[in-house]
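Submission checklist for the structure archive. All mandatory fields must be present; incomplete records are returned to the submitter.

[x] Identifier: Putative Flp pilus-assembly TadG-like N-terminal domain-containing protein
[x] Organism: Thalassoglobus neptunius
[x] Residue count: 409
[x] Sequence attached
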Amino acid sequence: MIWFAVLLFALLPLMALVIHLGMVTLSRRQMQTAVDAAAMEGLRLRDRSLVAPTFTESDRRAHVTELVTAIYDDNLSSDADDAMQFGAGPVILFDDDATDVTLPGTSFRASRSIRRENTGVYDPVLQSNESNERHGDMVAGQFQPAASHSEDATYSREDFLLSGDSGYDSVVGDDSFLVRLRRTDPTVDPAPAIDTTAGVSSSGPTVPFLFGRGPYGGPDLLDRRERGTIVRATAIAQAVPAMTVGPYLLAQPPGQPDPVPGLAPIQLELASWNLLVLNVPTMVSVSGSNVSGGVTGEFVDPQVATVGDELISGPAQSVVGERFVAIYAELPSGARLVAGFGTVDVDLTLTGGTITKLPSRIGAANSSATWRWPQSLANLTPDDLAAFLSLRETLQEGLMAPALRRSLH
């Protein structure tokens, strides 16, 4: 009898809690996986219209929706088959049955029925929120890393400002992109209106309690148990200076309508780069591998470059079109290390041509905020390293890349 009491009042409730928390954790992790990728994708495409004028804000947000749909799709096709049960956590809906045990004064039912056809997974369809409402599924704004990261019931955050908010820097603009998934829609009451606004926000069903449905506890506790557990996942990506850039690829991969943007086979000196006027072609001369005139630089072998690399000089070559370009800092020892990257429109022959400095932008491809420590930095003297870090901070109109800054709500 004693062991029966232990089983009834200790082990069974513990089992119920473990199973429920397992379902909640699974749902949260699957949701977080999607929003992390979606926030990066939304920010990555922010400046796509600079190279594809027909690309709109609607297109950017549609791409984010399509990405999340693809993450939870079994076979990357538009059919309704969901045999593999990929989704943002399990969905289990109870049947309304005459045998349900109801408790007066509450919405709680102590006995519920489950049918196989009422089980599955949550397949979210993000709303585009083109009006950029604060509570939307995807929101463009400005991240404030030093502010509190809490979120209130209206989805206001001190660390994520929208245009018009106090403290919003209009010069910086919308440097960040937030994406959220939520499961706040219980079966007993509708979800909050701001969670299910057509075209703005969406929500899936809460995670129900399958066990531990005994009629104990006050009315509030019983109602919360019938409601199920609310699960949310939020991610914020912010534009940061690009740390690694790949070479220009003329070959078009499948599904890629344009050549992949990348590095020009030249690097430009930091001080002369900062003196260039935006969108104004600057005449330069080419002698051997050296570039001189309105800006100083040299031809280099095209390769993957990261901040701190010492690029190898290469032969002069003709270059035409928009490219990323490495910007180097010359240190007291004479070493030339990559301090960052910019974007240029070049028209160069073996004797000279023009280089046009373009405004700072987020690279839509072939640029990354990920960095590896190059050996060239490890070999620097303390004075050279201090000079390098100081010079890096002076780079103007540098190339940016998306970085995940917050992956919790």
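[x] Structure attached
Curator remark: Residues 1-236 form one domain. The first helix runs from residue 2 to 44.
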